[in-house]
Structure formats: structure tokens, C-alpha cells
């Protein structure tokens, strides 16, 4: 299986073009950062719990059965153990290498009735991994769209999500988030409690800080203007935590149909939605 590698000497990234153009590995100052399987083929057999993958034309969980959105019928089908349709359509499909760290794929026109093109660009410089994701409407009518990236960061770690509000469950949400309290108040660096699975809103800059105490490595995650939420999950039986910049909140089809906040973005024919994120790594002095 082909693996593309990009490095600036301090930070190394490995991408799998044949499996979603996903991040297979990120290594910073000699330390593994992502949950990387020994065999890259594991991503195909178990696509949701390794590395870091692109989610589009929607992120998180939506209704798997027939639903009408924008006058068109969707029939997505369940692809996750909880019976939902999760994380879009291209997370493990083969992408085309466009060169210079850029990848693309065309999809849709099926259970998702609008055809679209997704793109990803990865660059490494100055200890920072720059990620640009894009989804473009190829249909002749407006298309709802969302995009995000889903990296799994290895434990043990401390995390701070700089956000004032949260949807405390990604399975069922109210239209608006709640103020952060208790285990969902992650505004200061600390270990994340097990089995949280929420969506943080009203995020600041930087959006997220992660520290690995055993190595002294720190990562600052910044996200562009199209990223209003950070989804995070800490399942007790996984040795990693997912920290996911996304362009919309969970239950996006319901939100879009009901004109609730933080739904999918309507793209005119030929228009694109772009997500920018940067992962900046620093190591403690002398580490």
C-alpha cells in the first residue's frame, strides 16, 4: 500500500491516498501523536478508530433512512454500530493524488443525491501541520454540505478545549448548546474524563491545546472561520481521544431542515466550503 510522507525534519506526516487520503501517522519530535495501526490495511477493516480522516459531505451522525432535504430524497444507510449514518462517504475511499500534498475525490449522486468533489491538502513546515479541506458542489442545484477532520490523539494526554458552550451528547442534541459545566468544562488543561462524546461551541483561538505529560510535547490546534464547533470523544476502551474540527453540529440534516443553528452550509452550484486547521507542535526545553 502506498504511503506518502511529508516532513520538515521535526514533524513527519504519513498519508494513505488509497484509503481516504487519511492521516496514517503524525510524529512530532520523535514522538507518535496519532493512534496508528501497525498495518495500514487496518484502516480499511476498522475505519473509524485510527489515524485522522476526512468527513464529508457531512460529519458525525445523521439519519440513515429516507429523509427529504431541500426537495431531494436522501437514503444514506447505516454504517456504524449504533445504527446511524456517520462521517460522510469518503473516509476510506481511494482518492486521486494531485501532487504537492493535494488529493481529491468525486462522489455523491447516489444515496446523497448531489454529486460533489472533496479535496484535501497537507503541508508540514516549522513544526506545524497545515490542513486544508474542501467540498465543492457539482450539482445543478444548491447542495447542503459539511466537512471536518477526525484525528485520534494518543493517550495519556491533557486537553483543553477553549469553548464556553457544549452539546453534551452527539446522539441527541437540543437546538442550542448549554454552558460548559462539570466534566464538560475543559477550558483548562487536564486529563479528559472517559466516555465523553460531545460537541463544543463558541470556541476561542486557539481552539484546542493538548499536552503529553510523559514527553513534554504540546500541540496547539487552530481552526479557520468556517469551524464553529469542536467534537471530542474519549471512549474508555480506546487508547486515544478524538478531537475534531467540524463545520456543523450533530444531527445536521435535522438542523438544516428545521433551520436550526449550526446546520449544513447551502452551496450554490460550483461553490465550495473550505475548512482550515493547523496543528502546531512544541517540545519542552531540553526534551
Overview of this structure, please?
This protein is mainly β and 287 residues long. The chain has one domain: Beta-galactosidase, Chain A, domain 5. 3% of the residues lie in helices and 48% in strands. It has 2 helices and 23 strands. The longest helix is centred in the last third of the chain and has 6 residues, at 252-257. The chain is globular, with a radius of gyration of 18 Å. It starts with a strand and ends with a strand.
CATH architecture, please? Distorted Sandwich
Number of strands: 23
Q: Which geometry do the CA atoms define?
A: globular
Spell the H/E element sequence: EEEEHEEEEEEEEEEEEEEEEEHEE
Report Rg. 18 Å
CATH topology category name: Beta-galactosidase, Chain A, domain 5
Brief account:
The protein has helices at residues 42-45, 252-257; strands spanning 4-7, 11-16, 22-28, 31-32, 52-55, 61-62, 67-69, 72-74, 85-86, 96-99, 102-108, 115-125, 128-137, 143-145, 148-154, 158-167, 178-179, 197-212, 217-223, 229-233, 240-246, 265-267, 272-283.
